[in-house]
Amino acid sequence: MTLVNTTAIITGGNTGIGYGIAEALVAEGVNVAITSRSMERASEAAEKIRKKSTSKGEILPLEVDVRDFDAQKRAVQSVLKEWGKLDFFVANAGVGHFAPIQELSPEKWKETIDTNLSGVFYSIKASVDALTSSRGFFLTISSLAGTNFFAGGSAYNASKFGLTGFTQAVMLDLRQEGVRVSTIMPGSVATGFNDHEVNEKDAWKIQIEDIGEMVVSLFKLDPRTLPSKIEVRPSMPPKK
After folding, report:
1. CB-based contact 52:27 (threshold 8 Å)
2. Across all residues in the chain, what is the average pLDDT?
3. Which residue intervals define the domain Ketoreductase in the entry (predicted)?
4. Does 19 participate in catalysis according to the annotation?
5. Per-residue pLDDT reduced to its tens digit, 200-213
6. Are the CB atoms for 163 and 117 separated by under 8 Å?
7. The domain spanning residue 174 has which CATH number?
8. DSSP 98-144
């Protein structure tokens, strides 16, 4: 299945996993809109992708806060105006705040849930009509933290446990409409998530291009088959 001339939105597509997915899709000929809360960062990422010699699709930067439902609706309308349809929506934007419950502030809790969970609800609500029309694909980026809890992870675990369950329920809601819904649940990925500075010590981790390649393969898969939940982890993490 070719992806040439299909279209996609990737929230948080200016960096990390979202950027890796955007780069991979554009190289396949997908026209991709990447969103960021900063238009400057979205534009810088878009220009970087454009300069890649393998880039075949178009790239559109958009300023969107996923916590704003109206902003997400405007993003979908921008894609429909630009390219006439929406085939893929990758709900990738996320934040991570990690602290023992004694230290976790209500503000950090709210930001985590509003971004990682409510933001994805707004994403599907904003795009469901367009995806139904195209018989498209809605993909969320959850985490292995969506099934494995850990100390200091109450907010992040809650958001990702919720996201994993939400995605699976939406999959059941939309499958008879011809809309495929899935979630990818990565373990350790070499990104700047949570202010981490990527360095050579991260070579053992999943790389963003690995997630990009996985998404391309998922979107190319015959629509009769749906991997509805995909766990992915480093094959050889350091021994503890």
Report:
1. yes
2. 94
3. 6-193
4. no
5. 777 888 899 999 99
6. yes
7. 3.40.50.720
8. ---TTT--HHHHHHHHIIIIIHHHHHHHHHHHHHHHHT-EEEEE--G
- What's the rounded Cα separation, in Å, for the pair 36 and 38? 5
pTM comes to 0.95
In the block, residue with structure tokens 């960021």: 36
Q: How many angstroms separate the CA atoms of 184 and 229, rounded?
A: 6
pLDDT of residue 195: 61
Q: What is the pLDDT of residue 181?
A: 98
Q: Phi and psi at residue 100, in whole multiples of 5°?
A: -60, 150
Q: Among 98, 122, 138, 156, which one carries the catalytic annotation?
A: 156
C-beta of residue 230 within 8 angstroms of C-beta of residue 17: no
- Domain residues for the domain of 205 are 7-232
Any idea which residue has 């099934």 for tokens? 147
User: How does strand 180-186 pair with strand 31-36?
Assistant: unpaired
> Which two three-digit tokens encode residue 2?
């070719």
Residue 239 lies in a domain: no
Question: In the chain, pLDDT over 90 holds for what percent of residues?
Answer: 86
Query: Amino acid identity, residue 76?
Result: V
Residue pair 12/18 in contact by the 8 Å Cβ criterion: yes
Residue 109 lies in a domain: yes
**What is the reported pLDDT for 50?**
92
**Closest to 22 measured CA to CA, from 146, 156, 195, 139:** 139
